[in-house]
Design a protein that fits this description.
By secondary structure, the chain is mainly alpha-helical. It has one domain: ABC transporter involved in vitamin B12 uptake, BtuC. Helix 3 runs antiparallel to helix 4, helix 3 packs antiparallel against helix 6 and helix 12 packs across helix 13.
């Protein structure tokens, strides 16, 4: 791999990490962490079909996630079953179908990511779409938070919680699709959730919470990608382990603060 390619991959990871962390901050607030994790697995059948027809796995993942997100949202509005249970159904079915359909040589890469397979076009698309996701998420952030506090209150001020939830879930699906090659379908959900949980450990305000979520998402992808490239390891597991190390550090900081305040 040449240095310019590595630079592009690192920049791609930075933007994917930033978008994932920011979206994840709202997912933690809405207590939908398990939903975010399960949604990442729904991408696998789309990736498998894309590989069979020799098209970009990112496109296949995005199509599968869009279909699943709209399906879960629709069933949530028309069914008495909890969203977590609905996503669980999609998750198990998608994972089984994806494993059956994915060609064996590409299975590990689909599950755990391989940043070496990211092309120039993939990287540029991921960067620009990540920027768009950050902007759109910022635009609807107040509506998301208000809906997380009380859907009745959101409706009373003219906010359609259903439409905002659909748009938000679609944004999550898109960022998961962007990260499929970088982290893999099996672990991408962790990149959405863990940076936000880490940020929650040490944040003293909402603005700090959003900022730290983005920073930890960026650090996870950046440091993880460098380590993976240096030691020829699978990108996904290293990125996730990096985010877990960050979580452990913030957890220790949180405990030390509590002990200090208790004295």
């Amino acid at each position: 791999m040449t240095e310019p390619n590595l630079f592009l991959l690192l920049v791609t990871g930075i933007f994917i990490g930033a978008a994932s962390g920011y979206l994840g901050s709202f997912m933690v607030l809405k207590r939908m962490s398990l939903v975010g994790d399960a949604l990442s697995h729904v991408a696998l059948p789309g990736v498998a079909i894309a590989l069979v027809f020799h098209i970009s796995p990112m496109i296949g993942a995005m199509a599968a996630l869009t279909f699943a997100t709209i399906g879960v949202w629709y069933l949530e509005q028309t069914s008495s079953v909890y969203p977590e249970a609905l996503v669980g159904v999609f998750f198990t079915a998608s994972l089984a179908l994806g494993i059956l359909l994915t060609p064996e040589p590409e299975l590990l890469e689909s599950l755990f990511g391989s940043m070496e397979k990211i092309t120039l076009v993939d990287g540029l698309v991921a960067i620009w779409v990540s920027i768009a996701i950050l902007i759109m998420t910022k635009m609807i952030s107040k509506q998301i938070v208000l809906g997380a506090i009380s859907e009745e209150l959101a409706q009373s001020v003219g906010i359609s919680g259903r439409k905002i939830n659909l748009l938000y879930l679609l944004l999550v699906g898109i960022v998961v699709a962007l990260g499929v090659k970088y982290v893999g379908t099996l672990l991408m959900g962790a990149l959405v959730i863990i940076p936000a949980v880490s940020a929650k450990n040490i944040s003293k305000s909402m603005n700090q919470y959003y900022l730290f979520s983005i920073v930890f998402g960026v650090l996870s992808t950046l440091v993880g990608a460098v380590i993976a490239h240096s030691y020829q390891l699978s990108t996904g597991p290293v990125v996730v382990l990096t985010s877990i190390v960050i979580f452990c550090i913030t957890f220790v900081v949180m405990r030390m603060r509590r002990q200090k305040n208790a004295i």
